[in-house]
Design goal:
The complex is a heterodimer of chains A (290) and B (399). Chain A is built from nine helices and 14 strands. With 290 residues, chain A is α/β, with parallel strands linked by helices. In chain A, the strands form two sheets. Chain A has a seven-stranded mixed β-sheet, sandwiched between helices. Chain A has a seven-stranded mixed β-sheet with strand order 9-8-11-10-12-13-14, with helices on both faces. In chain A, a hairpin with a 2-residue loop joins β3 and β4. In chain A, α5 crosses α9 and α6 packs parallel to α7. Chain B has 399 residues and is of the alpha+beta class. Chain B is 38% helix and 24% strand. Chain B contains 13 helices and 18 strands. In chain B, the strands form five sheets. In chain B, strands 7, 8, 9, 10, 11 and 12 form a six-stranded antiparallel β-sheet that branches. In chain B, strands 1-6-2-3 form a four-stranded antiparallel β-sheet, covered by helices on one side. In chain B, a hairpin with a 4-residue loop joins β7 and β8. The interface between A and B is large, with 57 and 50 residues.
Chain lengths: 290, 399
């Protein structure tokens, strides 16, 4: 078992024939993901990577029965791609594109309220992977191993770091989700934690956050009441100066409640195993499972 | 991207928001010319001379003066242009003022009382909606109002379809306005929200909004931030970026597609990915060092970006150790290692020890390349090993 994606997922690639789409679709296919086709407006009817290209997501869904899409469309057009996927009935939309204007995402979120069956992951994220079944993202597949740890994180390479530590300690993963670092995203930390808590095959959860926002605090408060599995947490940005932007729009220190220290304190109070050093994430999970 | 007050006001004016008549001036002569034309057009006898820097608290630092004559305008402009203005937001070194906004004074006595309000528009991340934050207590430090009298801070959530007329009315009533001032405020709010939307602002803050003695509503100050991700559709605004307001090293980094933030520590770092970069800064601190910077080389760590990163970090005389932390995914560690070796050859002697931690795709090949290069570079594979090396170097150097 796993959450959201698995060997039965039928994946459509939006922005299929572009350089990013081509590169990562190739990697996903090599990993064993069931990529059923792609969408590039104006190139419908062609074949790319031995798979059909469609003009619209709707055509792709009707022809292939796709239920998952991954978006590699330039940021100026990515919001429209998310909406198109939802309108076509895609259940899980994974948006990799980085740099989507905030105003566009405000409209996307509003639009998605009419499509409660559609879940968005991202944007500006590495995607989602169920090891040895399906990789719907840009993460390096080889560091992952099938197992029972759920991983949810706001960042890319820091997630790889955590997964690598887990794998090297013999702890495989049920599913890993990078939810993205933008101010407006689809699936939140709490959403992912709930899914993992309800997944019988997930035995422990690693939650990696950053300064800024309140997502980790909300997730921690939920875990305190509903948690049934050990959760290990880390917040990046303990040394980030106040008021400075550290690459992610998500990483802006706003008030006192969204500093790394405040979040880590809340997480501790809620029974989460908080690590101060990012080098100890895997070890802490191993200890927590004892 | 942050805008100056004068740039913000020009955009506000374009959307129909009332702003005091005025213009930017780079010299005292220009300031006098602007003042003369403002006096002629408005009949005012009060002119504000305001330092244009990207920081708040300018008034307290002596960067805002009220002139009663063109001679005073000249004197104030002369004093302010070229001064180092220190405010609570500039840091102790302050900021060099290169220009002033010269504009019509709007605090004139008259039939009605002059009042100041606070109004801002920004994104509420918890709801993914924009909100209007407002207070009848304007003109002062809004954070102080929020902590001392939170009941005087109001919030209005705005649906993506836009600010509705009933919401503008509600805000105007909550600000205690009636009659002409009330209807002027309703119009003001609609135009303000349009400015925010039309220009892809991520923050629009007016403090104070002034109700004049003849019941007109004016934006007396303006602080606007434009969403960087949306600048592609606002080339006119993108062209107004003032590089003098930014840290030179950060500007240089941007030219090389590096994301750099200068800090005050002694251990420089170069990392791929913002989250891992922050985590690396954290581990530097836990190892007894202080991070000298944040530097995200992104997904394109190669010889060119690594060399550029070295140059930027080495400009900081406080740096005693450099830690390169790369988790190879799409980025291959052997390429990064090659980049480090080439950067060494290109730059010549790098006077501080460098720790390179490579993990992920082709990490072993990368480590081998560096170990065989004969350079004074220490390699590590795990995050903990890298942390141990930082600790060792920091202790050895005895800062």
């Amino acid at each position: 078992m796993s959450i959201l994606v698995g060997k039965n997922s039928r994946v459509l690639v939006q922005g299929f024939t572009g350089s990013e789409g081509t590169f990562h679709a190739t990697q996903m296919i090599e990993y064993g993901t069931n990529v059923v086709g792609g969408v590039t407006p104006g190139k419908g009817g062609q074949k790319h990577l031995d798979r059909p290209v469609f003009n619209t997501v709707d055509d792709g869904v009707k022809t292939t029965g796709a239920d998952v899409s991954i978006i590699f469309v330039p940021p100026a057009f990515a919001a429209d791609s998310i909406i198109e996927a939802a309108a076509a009935g895609i259940k899980l939309v994974v948006c990799i594109s980085e740099g989507i204007p905030v105003a566009d995402m405000v409209r996307v979120k509003y639009f998605l309220e009419d499509f409660p069956a559609t879940r968005l992951i991202g944007p500006n994220c590495p995607g989602i992977i169920t090891p040895e079944e399906a990789k719907v993202g840009i993460m390096p597949g080889f560091i992952h191993k099938k197992g029972h740890i759920g991983v949810v994180s706001r960042s890319g390479t820091l997630t790889y770091e955590a997964v690598d530590q887990l794998t090297k300690l013999g702890l495989g993963q049920s599913t890993g989700i990078g939810i993205g670092g933008d101010p407006i995203i689809g699936t939140t930390t709490l959403d992912a934690i709930k899914l993992f808590m309800n997944d019988p095959d997930t035995h422990g959860i690693v939650m990696i956050g950053e300064i800024g926002g309140s997502m980790e605090t909300e997730a921690a408060q939920w875990v305190k009441i509903h948690g049934t599995k050990p959760v290990v947490g880390f917040i990046a940005g303990q040394t980030a100066p106040k008021g400075r932007k550290m690459g992610h729009a998500g990483a802006i220190i706003g008030g006192t409640a969204d500093t790394a220290e405040a979040k880590m304190n809340t997480m501790r109070e809620c029974g989460i195993h908080v690590v101060e050093s990012p080098a100890n994430i895997g070890r802490a999970m191993k200890d927590a499972l004892k | 991207m942050n805008l100056h007050e004068y740039q913000s006001k020009a955009l506000l004016k374009k959307s129909g928001v009332n702003v005091p008549l005025g213009s930017v001036a780079f010299t005292p002569d220009e300031a006098v010319k602007v003042a003369e034309s403002v006096i002629e057009a408005t009949g005012t006898d009060v002119i504000a001379v305001k330092a244009q820097i990207h920081a708040g608290g300018r008034g307290k630092g002596g960067g805002v003066k009220i002139a009663k004559s063109t001679e005073e305008v000249r004197r104030y402009a002369h004093d302010i242009i070229g001064m180092r203005l220190v405010t609570h937001q500039t840091g102790p070194k302050g900021k060099l003022v290169g220009k002033v906004l010269v504009e019509q004074g709007i605090y004139q006595p008259g039939p009605a009382e002059v009042k100041e309000f606070y109004i801002s528009i920004l994104l509420d991340r918890s709801t993914s909606r924009n909100i209007v934050v407002y207070s009848p207590q304007g003109g002062m430090d809004i954070e102080a109002v929020a902590s001392q009298s939170p009941q005087l801070i109001f919030k209005e959530e705005i649906n993506p379809l836009g600010l509705q007329p009933y919401q503008a009315r509600k805000i105007a009533f909550n600000l205690g306005l009636t009659g002409k001032a009330y209807s002027q405020m309703v119009k003001f709010l609609a135009n303000l929200y349009n400015t925010y939307e039309a220009n892809d602002f991520s923050l629009l803050e007016i403090n104070p909004v002034v109700k004049t003695s003849d019941d007109d509503i004016y934006a007396a100050d303006a602080k606007c931030t434009v969403d960087d991700s949306a600048l592609f559709r606002h080339p006119d605004i993108a062209g107004q970026r003032d590089l003098d307001e930014e840290e030179p090293a950060e500007v240089e980094a941007g030219k090389n597609n590096l994301n750099f933030v200068k800090l005050d520590g002694n251990v420089g770092c170069m990392v791929n990915g913002a989250g891992l970069a922050m985590a690396t800064m954290d581990i530097i601190k836990l190892s007894g060092g202080e991070p000298a910077n944040f530097l995200d080389v992104g997904g394109s760590a190669n010889a060119k970006t690594v060399a550029a990163g070295f140059r930027i970090i080495l400009k900081d005389p406080n740096v005693r150790v450099i830690l390169i932390n790369i988790f190879g995914g799409i980025v291959r560690c052997d390429r990064v290692a090659q980049g480090v070796v080439e950067a060494y050859r290109e730059i010549g002697n790098i006077p501080v020890p460098v720790i390179v931690r490579l993990q992920g795709t082709n990490a072993l090949e990368g480590r081998k390349l560096i170990d065989q290069s004969g350079l004074r570079v220490y390699t590590a594979t795990s995050f903990q090993e890298a942390a141990n090396l930082v600790k060792e170097m920091v202790e050895k150097q005895a800062f």
